[in-house]
Amino acid sequence: MKKEISVIGVPMDLGQMRRGVDMGPSAIRYAGVIERIEEIGYDVKDMGDICIEREKEVDENTKLRNLTQVATVCNELASKVDHIIEEGRFPLVLGGDHSIAIGTLAGVAKHYKNLGVIWYDAHGDLNTEETSPSGNIHGMSLAASLGYGHSSLVDLYGAYPKVKKENVVIIGARALDEGEKTSFAMKVLKCSRCMKLIVWG
């Protein structure tokens, strides 16, 4: 029996201020990712892209950029990921800025209560509305998934931490904001032939 993968594109750049990352899903498809996955024996179903509202905003109460739009897209993404797993398929999500991780992990967490996450990133994405110097939600995605931050992000698709902090490893972090360092007790392990490895505990 073939292993089955469903692909979802999330061409979102609303979690930060730079244009370009919204072209990620089309660029990855154009590079032939679906054909390459099929070549190694997987059945791939491309579910297209989630439609993204382009009007940008800053919430005057929180100073978070595009909070409503990001939460709406992530909620839709969580639902799609949830249903893909329910069908016995593996969700492959193409982004898009890092805020899409909020929706991805929310959907996966409906099925895996002890979910482990390997976070490859130069940044921790552990800010909240209180610690973020920019208000960009892409820098809050891991914090929200751990249960820290604005309720629109934390409670998205179910009011519970999607991931336990002891089940997260961050690989490649080189730039943590001061608020991230003080809010989370982390161990930093330096490897001689790799970048920094951060674990909790």
UniProtKB/TrEMBL annotation:
Keyword check for Metal-binding: yes
Pfam family, one: Arginase
GO cellular component: cytoplasm
Cofactor section: Mn(2+)
Listed GO MF terms: arginase activity; manganese ion binding
Signal peptide: none
InterPro entries in UniProt: Arginase (IPR014033), Ureohydrolase (IPR006035), Ureohydrolase_dom_sf (IPR023696)
EC number(s) reported in the record: 3.5.3.1
Matches recorded under SUPFAM superfamilies: Arginase/deacetylase (SSF52768)
EC supergroup of this enzyme: hydrolase
BP GO terms, sorted: arginine metabolic process
Keyword set, alphabetical order: Arginine metabolism, Hydrolase, Manganese, Metal-binding
Pathway connected to this protein: Nitrogen metabolism; urea cycle; L-ornithine and urea from L-arginine: step 1/1
Family per similarity comment: Belongs to the arginase family.
Protein name (database record): Arginase
Lineage of producing organism: Bacteria, Bacillati, Bacillota, Bacilli, Bacillales
